[in-house]
Every structure is written in structure tokens, then in C-alpha cells.
Design goal:
zinc, metal ion binding, LANC-like, 384 residues, metal-binding, three-stranded antiparallel β-sheet, mainly alpha
């Protein structure tokens, strides 16, 4: 439908990534990811720059820290771009460091995808260090709370007590998704299945309470007071799209047809939402809509496309086309991304989660899915 236009933008984004100096880890990783999947190559100088950044990084985030870089190096090794000797040298010291981080995250009760146990778990799954993965599953099991047949997890990053986060970026759907990955890799399958089942029961209760609404799941819930922070947005990070991903991953484990139907209804329900009701950021001054993966049009179109591949509903195809059209229209005008929303400041950058390289990955996945296979597992979107 958009073949020539997408090919043009894929080449344009490649040029931008090649020209970008990669002033920080966020930009350098974005450049690297896009070059790896689009060209199946990354310049040696950029690899060396990333390694230097990893050694100097004062933080270890799975998004923009040393863990993100070492994970990317493993992808380069899988693609035969760096050698066995190279990856062994890089991981020799870092694995022990990441094991220490695992213990620290468990002590802080921090399961977060970017700063806690789940990001570490995705890395250890990638390198097949299953003993570490099983430790993480055990920690997640110990952190659970139970109420009747329901299982949930309290967010210990926020200052407010008793908060359950329901976003894919930082909350319960990410736990579901990670546990499903562990189950399919044979890591503590019985524990994973038990936790997934209890978590689904909890989410079903919320679903039944609000299933007639346009936006069904809240972003956060105070389990003590019952107060809900409504989502009212379409995004990867928060809202029903992320919950749907978690539910589908759970279905692949439990094979519960009622759960499949619930996931199907959830994704069809939000497929009707247009930009003005989506919560996607738009700047009238800059004549710009956010096209990023995290909370922009490209991420939304990508998730609808993934679910279209699963369910084959015309409504999901139409939703994907709608959000893809908005993305391409903005690329024609020039894409900028929110930097300071309070002051309506938008900038160009090559970040993966919130920048142009991520938009490129969505276009690549749509146009040439065989080239982009499983690129999105770092964001737990590898569902179809």
C-alpha cells in the first residue's frame, strides 16, 4: 500500500542514522539498531564508540545504560558482525556486574523493564544464562501479592504506597510478558504458569469492571483505596495496547480460549480510537505529531499490525493503516519528537524508543518483516 513511500523513508532514516554523531547512548544505540537490521552491518567505529560508552556509563539501564549496550553487542555477535572472542571479552566482566545488579534489584523490590529484574532477565535469556533467569523468576514470585485467586505486584519505584502499575513499560503487563518468555524457554515453567494465571485473574477483574468503556484499563491502581489513575491513551508504554500484549503472551502459555477472546475484544475495542481521543502528543506550534514507538503513532501502528497478523480482522488492518498514514504524513513534513512538553519544545533525534530510528524499525517490520524479525523483543512486543 505504501511501498515506494516507505522505501524512500527507510533510506532517508538510514542516511540520518549514518550521519548522526551519536552524542550519547540513546542516539548511538538507535543508530546501531537501525543499521544492524536495515543494512545488516554497523560501522566498526560506532561499535567502538558504544563499547567506550558502556565502560564509562554511570548507569546500567536496559534502555540507555551499559546493559543496553552489552545486549546490543550480543545481537551483533548473533549477526556475525563481532567475533566469539570479542563477545567473550566484553561479557567476561559485565556478567558478574549484572549478577550483582540482579541482587540489588531484588533487594530494592524493583522488577522494572528498564531499571530492574525484567531487563536483566531479557539479557540473560538472550545469552542463555538460565540459572540467572530462574533466580529472577524466583524473585518475582517472592515479590507477588495475592488476594483470593488474584496475583499482582506493587510498584516500589514510585513514592506513593500500594500502587499497581498497569503499563507495559513499567508494570504488570511487562511481568506477564517476561514470565511467558521464561515459560517458553523452559525456566521454572510451573512457577511461571502459576504467576501468569493469577495475574490474568487480577486483570480479568479489572476488565469486567470496565469492559464497556472506550479505554478499559487504568494506568495505575491503588490497591488499598481502589483509586484508579485513568489511562485514556493509546501507547506502547501505558494503556490497553500494552495490556493486550501481556494478555496475548499469557494466552500462549495458558491456552485459555476465554482469555484469547478477552484479548481480542480489548484490541478491537481500541482500534476504533482516533488521534483526537488517543492522548498522542501534538504540537500546533511545530505542526508535529509524536511518531515515536513509546507513545506515538509508529508504536501504535506497529502494535495493531502485530495483532492483525494474529487475528486477521479488517478493523485491525484499518487501524494500522490509519496510524501508519499519520506517521508517513509527518515524515513527509519532517519528524520531531517531544523534548520539553511544558515549553512545547520538540527536537530531531535518532533514539530507538522515542526517536527516528524506532520509527524506521516499525517501517522496516511492516515492509520487510523477515529483515526485522524479533527486533521488538526488547520492548516485549514479539507477539506475531
Amino acid at each position: 500500500m505504501y511501498k515506494d513511500k516507505i522505501d524512500f523513508f527507510l533510506a532517508q532514516i538510514s542516511e540520518k542514522c549514518n550521519q548522526d554523531k551519536g552524542e550519547n547512548i540513546t542516539f548511538s544505540l538507535g543508530n546501531g539498531y537501525y543499521s544492524l537490521f536495515y543494512n545488516n552491518d554497523v560501522e566498526i567505529e560506532k561499535i567502538e564508540d558504544l563499547i567506550d560508552m558502556a565502560s564509562e556509563a554511570s548507569y546500567s539501564s536496559f534502555a540507555t545504560g551499559s546493559l543496553a549496550i552489552i545486549y546490543f553487542m550480543r545481537l551483533l555477535h548473533n549477526a556475525d558482525i563481532i567475533t566469539d572472542e570479542d563477545i567473550d571479552s566484553l561479557e567476561e566482566d559485565s556478567i558478574e556486574f549484572f549478577l550483582e545488579l540482579l541482587s540489588a534489584a531484588a533487594d530494592k523490590k524493583e522488577y522494572d523493564l528498564f531499571t530492574g529484574l525484567i531487563g536483566l532477565g531479557i539479557y540473560f535469556l538472550e545469552i542463555k544464562k538460565f540459572d540467572a533467569v530462574e533466580k529472577i523468576v524466583s524473585h518475582i514470585d517472592q515479590l507477588k501479592h495475592e488476594r483470593n485467586q488474584s496475583i499482582f505486584w506493587i510498584d516500589h519505584i514510585v513514592k506513593e504506597e500500594n500502587i499497581i502499575d498497569l503499563g507495559l513499560a513499567h508494570g504488570q503487563p511487562s511481568i506477564l510478558s517476561f514470565l511467558a518468555e521464561c515459560y517458553h524457554r523452559g525456566c521454572k515453567k510451573e512457577t511461571c504458569a502459576k504467576l501468569i494465571s493469577g495475574s490474568v485473574t487480577f486483570l480479568k477483574e479489572l476488565y469486567e469492571e470496565n469492559k464497556q468503556a472506550q479505554h478499559i484499563f487504568p494506568s495505575k491502581l491503588n490497591i488499598a483505596t481502589g483509586e484508579k489513575q485513568l489511562s485514556e491513551r493509546l501507547a506502547w508504554c501505558y494503556g490497553d495496547l500494552g495490556v493486550a500484549i501481556g494478555l496475548w503472551k499469557a494466552y500462549t502459555v495458558l491456552q485459555d480460549e476465554n482469555l484469547k477472546a478477552m484479548c481480542h475484544h480489548l484490541i478491537l475495542n481500541v482500534s476504533k480510537i482516533k488521534a483526537d481521543k488517543s492522548g498522542v502528543f501534538y504540537s500546533q506550534k511545530n505542526d508535529c505529531i509524536d511518531t515515536g514507538i513509546c507513545h506515538g503513532t509508529a508504536g501504535i501502528s506497529h502494535i495493531f499490525n502485530k495483532f492483525y497478523r494474529i487475528f486477521q480482522d479488517e478493523e485491525l488492518k484499518e487501524a494500522h493503516n490509519y496510524w501508519m498514514s499519520l506517521t508517513l504524513n509527518q515524515l513527509e513534513k519532517g519528524a520531531k519528537f517531544p523534548y520539553d512538553l511544558k515549553n512545547d519544545e520538540w527536537v530531531e533525534h535518532t533514539g530507538l524508543l522515542e526517536g527516528i530510528s524506532g520509527v524506521g524499525m516499525v517501517l522496516l517490520d511492516y515492509q520487510y518483516p523477515e529483515k526485522a524479525k524479533d527486533w521488538d523483543k526488547i520492548y516485549l512486543m514479539n507477539i506475531g
